[in-house]
Amino acid sequence: xxxxxxxxxxxxxxxxxxxxxxxxxxxxxxxxxxxxxxxxxxxxxxxxxxxxxxxxxxxxxxxxxxxxxxxxxxxxxxxxxxxxxxxxxxxxxxxxxxxxxxxxxxxxxxxxxxxxxxxxxxxxxxxxxxxxxxxxxxxxxxxxxxxxxxxxxxxxxxxxxxxxxxxxxxxxxxxxxxxxxxxxxxxxxxxxxxxxxxxxxxxxxxxxxxxxxxxxxxxxxxxxxxxxxxxxxxxxxxxxxxxxxxxxxxxxxxxxxxxxxxxxxxxxxxxxxxxxxxxxxxxxxxxxxxxxxxxxxxxxxxxxxxxxxxxxxxxxxxxxxxxxxxxxxxxxxxxxxxxxxxxxxxxxxxxxxxxxxxxxxxxxxxxxxxxxxxxxxxxxxxxxxxxxxxxxxxxxxxxxxxxxxxxxx
Amino acid sequence: xxxxxxxxxxxxxxxxxxxxxxxxxxxxxxxxxxxxxxxxxxxxxxxxxxxxxxxxxxxxxxxxxxxxxxxxxxxxxxxxxxxxxxxxxxxxx
Lengths: 409, 93
Description:
The complex is a heterodimer. Chain A is an alpha/beta fold.
């Protein structure tokens, strides 16, 4: 259901409603999408805005996510501001087009409502979809709450279209946990969003027949690597742009954003690194354990691509043992994607914390306060013994507990 | 290709008609030969050539643009059976 009128007061919104509303306020020129759970209601609600004439967007109904991203690429090359949303298999079906979008330097903004990948088929929260796309040349922002998802999407437009970047941006939020749960959210006025994102002025347009141009031409041994180098440098520059845009957002609207959030991290002996909604659960565990005098902390990455390795190493250098919790397995036999990135980042430090990998919550399996507390206790044990017994491990595996919730199938 | 230090972002080519500068004739293994005596100037070859490599002047087929002809042989195949004015020869010969 559409929310109107927009008010600065706090409103209760699901993650998907907030994303749809942010899209309405951004008013993109083109959106092409194909429905897939749990992202469906983003496009469903946004299509209501289109039907009601609340936006000027040309909404293209396509026959698949591959076509959705292809249409987004064509529209972006034509000079339009373009947005879409998807999940799981939808993102997987976009795969080859994700690389085309980033290689053509098209500032498309995509919301990925994180969901597990088949097989077995599963519609619930899991980061395997966006983690699989982590090397596709898209900037990736992760969101703990509905508020963060809303704010990230608005900032994503500025990051993508920045002349130093010109890369597509993916905003990730947790399927069902964030996408379908109602949270208090503070909205911006339409005018504030419009003023913040500004007007998109593309350098080239496929529709500019007075200045004909070719997009997506072939390059071989002579230039391909040069274009990839440009793309790589742009991705590195995106980090500073994310910081600048997050700071400006904070100055204007009172909610500043950086590369990551540290929670009770400054004096922490042990810390968990974790993405999205599970960070909230971890904070609850930290609050409880701090009352017992245990120095536990959290680092919640917001920007995962580009990976801010220097800043994360700096933030974790005083911690003695770190657990990287991944809601995705990279099937490398060497832990999850956050683990390998964070552990590699820490290598540059003279004295490094011990680092362990824990895979949790796949396919929407609950991650509870007690699960976070158990990981912290494992880390304290690492401190006590001075060694890591189990480097990589799955947690939240107790099936009997989950079955008692009636959530099995 | 001429050296450029800073190629345009995303590989955009900032002007049109650049395919003309790409000499696909380099790819050719078979070369089309025209027999002027047999040609009836029906221009079927001009219509079907995928590389616009059939040169026509004042309504007459006068030869091939060998900078762009890839030697696919469509012209020789489509040249009417009763005419057979185009034959394909090995470049190596």
